[in-house]
Amino acid sequence: MPSFVYTARTAGGERVAGSMVAATERDVITSLSAKSLFPISVALEKAASQPLFGGRVSQQRIATFYSQLASLLQNGVPLVRSLNILREQASQPALQNALDDVVKRIEDGEAVSDAFARHPRLFSDMAVNMSRAGAEGGFLEDALERVASFTEHQAELKARTIGALIYPAMLATFGTLIMTLLLVFVVPRFEPMFEQMRQRGKMPALTEGLLAFSGWLSSSGWIVAVIMLVLIFAIRIQLRSDAGRLLLDRIRLRMPLFGPIFRNLAVARFCRVLGTLLKNGVPILKSLEISRQATGNRVLSDAIETATDNISSGQTLAVPLTACGHFPRNVTEMISVAEESNSLDTVLVNIANGLEKETTRRLDLMVRLVEPLMLLVMAVGVLLVVMSLLMPIMNMNQVLRD
Q1: Range of the structural domain that residue 234 is part of
Q2: Taking the chain, what is the end-to-end CA distance rounded to the nearest angstrom?
Q3: Beta bridge pairs of residue 44
Q4: Is position 54 within any domain?
């Protein structure tokens, strides 16, 4: 979240200034009013809102940091001393510099959640809000432990998904490369051998088509490559816009086989983040705002935003989620029952666990089906090339006799 600088006056007329991390300028004004301060000016603190220290830190390492910090706090080590210990042990410069800045801000009187919020590349909104709720409620170590468990779980799920798709992607890449090399460098060498057969009209149609396609690819393949690069560049530019990302997310949800997988993963992320935040005492409207951003899908995020507006007007969560049509019926039914029994936080985490298990099984099944299918496609392609080259060779003796 961004950081704002403000100037205000106390009830006695004294002028005060400071900074505050909040979602919007209105939240800053509301917080100041709650402290009996009268805002004079509120502006975005651009220089300090998102400092860049360079480098990347894996989610697995961040999860370890949360777990170690929670362990130190549970054993009575003060917060600043715990952060200093972890800063000294950190091997990544990005994490070291971020923790150094966090320690300095905490020593200056800033809350740990606000200090975390100044480094959004390392500490997510969920971690910021859960640490804020934990610090205010006196259970910071428990909140950090849950953040660690959540972050580690998400990192493992992402690694498992990517790992399942690596082998099919490698098959597709190497298969395309092999076929391209055959068509560009190997097939043209046979064309002079078949010239006499072509002049006599004895060339098989399959061979003729292969030679024509090979010649076109050899002479105009660079045009195809340039067009593909331009298309990729144009698509990447388009995906940076809101309309482009929204279109891509809609396509993801409507894909024949992968659509349900993308949807279930997005819904599972939403349920897990929302359930974890609610369990740690974060208000439901704030929890919905954070969890809808965690879906990674604009279509679902917009639907959840509509649900948030409905909740503000007094409705339950299940009704607008059902109306949007993107959430599975069994999920909305469980949410409805959980709201009636006042167990929404626990049920949401259970829903996420169930969806992730179902998605993992479906993904494993699809990978098992895709791998032999891709091998079959590669085998058929190579077989067509070999047959196209062998057919005229086998008929060449008869052509020469004629």
Answers
A1: 172-402
A2: 83
A3: 4
A4: no
CA angle 196, 197, 198 (to 5 degrees): 90
| Residues 87 and 184 grouped into a single domain | no
Between β-strands 15-21 and 3-9, what pairing exists: parallel, antiparallel or unpaired? antiparallel
Q: Is residue 159 part of a domain?
A: no
Mean pLDDT of 37-63: 67
Whether 167 is in a domain gets the answer no
Helices 93-107 and 59-74 cross at an angle (nearest 10°) of 40
| Beta carbons within 10 angstroms of residue 148's beta carbon | 21
Question: What does the alpha-carbon distance between residue 216 and residue 187 come to, in Å, rounded to a whole number?
Answer: 12
Cα 44 to Cα 28: distance, rounded to the nearest angstrom: 11
pTM over 0.70: no
- The 8-class DSSP code of residue 201 comes to T
Rounded to the nearest integer, the mean pLDDT of the chain is: 82
Mean pLDDT of all residues in 368-397: 83
CATH number of the domain that 191 lies in? 1.20.81.30
**Cα-Cα-Cα-Cα dihedral sign, residues 119, 124, 126, 131:** negative
> Are the CB atoms for 243 and 317 separated by under 8 Å?
no
Q: Confidence class of residue 48 from pLDDT cuts 50, 70 and 90?
A: very low
> Over 80: is that where the pLDDT of 129 sits?
no
Q: What angle do CA 348, 353, 355 make, to 5 degrees?
A: 90
368 and 388 part of one domain = yes
CA torsion 372-373-378-381 (nearest 10°) is: 140
Name the token pair of 152: 């580690």
Give the whole-angstrom CA distance, residue 232 versus residue 319: 40
Length, in residues, of the chain? 402
Taking CA atoms, 296 is separated from 22, 265, 270, 328, in Å, by 22, 9, 9, 17
* Rounded CA separation 328/244 (Å): 25
CA separation for the pair 356, 348 (Å, rounded): 12
Phi, psi dihedral angles at 218 (to 5 degrees): -70, -35
Residue 117, amino acid:
A
**Are 125 and 27 part of one and the same domain?**
no
Q: In this structure, are 116 and 45 located in the same domain?
A: no
- Establish if 164 belongs to a structural domain: no
**H-helix segments, 280-343:** 284-294, 298-312, 318-324, 329-341
Q: Are strands 38-44 and 15-21 parallel, antiparallel or unpaired?
A: unpaired
Do residues 278 and 301 share a domain?
A: yes
Quote the DSSP letter at residue 125: H
